């Protein structure tokens, strides 16, 4: 019998995805990023269409911001939930390409995609719609940082640091350094 978490994982898994995790980010953070990206991009598309109605009031910057927000929402939903865009040929290929990239690149792309509409038309719809895309980028940024150390590892590092003992986390910074007296003299003929 499968647990609820395993059932949810099998529903949210991509076709052909390796069931073993390749990184150390928590499962709930992966699904939070995927769900927030999917729901947030749908909301961003609708709010972007609402901002595009600003052209009726001669607000060209809100029209451009709405278009940008709709395109950003489409790009995020095509990456996070390619099942929503089944009838567009290039979406599955593009989604797989983005999946193979590191999390920090996806975080940077989402955060950069979310900013221009806010600057073009700083309204509540733009801030909320693009803010959800930006929050998805923040979640992927936190995933790129990785899992923090266990409580015991952090405690031993603090104790070693307070006693002046070199801990393992800092000893590999300069591994091949030699004392100055053992290094060769520079050639003065050059």
UniProtKB/TrEMBL annotation:
Keywords: Calcium, Calcium channel, Calcium transport, Cell projection, Cytoplasmic vesicle, Endocytosis, Endosome, Ion channel, Ion transport, Membrane, Transmembrane, Transmembrane helix, Transport. It is a multi-pass membrane protein. The chain crosses the membrane at residues 35-58, 70-91, 103-120, 126-145. GO terms for cellular component: endosome; presynaptic membrane; synaptic vesicle membrane. It comes from the Eukaryota. Its main location: membrane. Pfam families: Cg6151-P. It is found in: Cytoplasmic vesicle, Secretory vesicle, Synaptic vesicle membrane; Endosome; Presynaptic cell membrane. GO terms for biological process: endocytosis. One of its GO terms (molecular function) is calcium channel activity. Homomultimer. Associates with the dally/ magu complex. Belongs to the calcium channel flower family. This is Calcium channel flower. It comes from Trichogramma kaykai.
């Amino acid at each position: 019998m499968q647990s609820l978490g395993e059932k949810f994982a099998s529903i949210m898994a991509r076709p052909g995805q390796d069931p073993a995790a390749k990184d150390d980010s928590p499962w709930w953070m992966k699904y939070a990023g995927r769900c927030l990206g999917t729901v947030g991009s749908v909301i961003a598309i609708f709010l972007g269409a609402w901002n595009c109605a600003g052209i009726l009031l001669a607000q060209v910057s809100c029209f451009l911001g709405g278009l940008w927000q709709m395109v950003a929402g489409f790009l995020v939903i095509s990456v996070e939930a390619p099942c929503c865009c089944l009838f567009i040929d290039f979406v599955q290929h593009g989604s797989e390409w983005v999946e193979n990239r590191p999390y920090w690149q996806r975080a940077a792309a989402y955060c950069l995609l979310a900013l221009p509409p806010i600057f073009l038309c700083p309204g509540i719809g733009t801030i909320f719609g693009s803010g959800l895309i930006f929050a998805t980028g923040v979640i992927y940024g936190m995933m790129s940082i990785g899992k923090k150390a266990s409580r015991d590892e952090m405690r031993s590092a603090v104790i070693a640091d307070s006693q002046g003992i070199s801990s393992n986390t800092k000893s590999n910074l300069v591994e091949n350094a030699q004392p100055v007296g053992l290094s060769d003299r520079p050639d003065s003929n050059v």
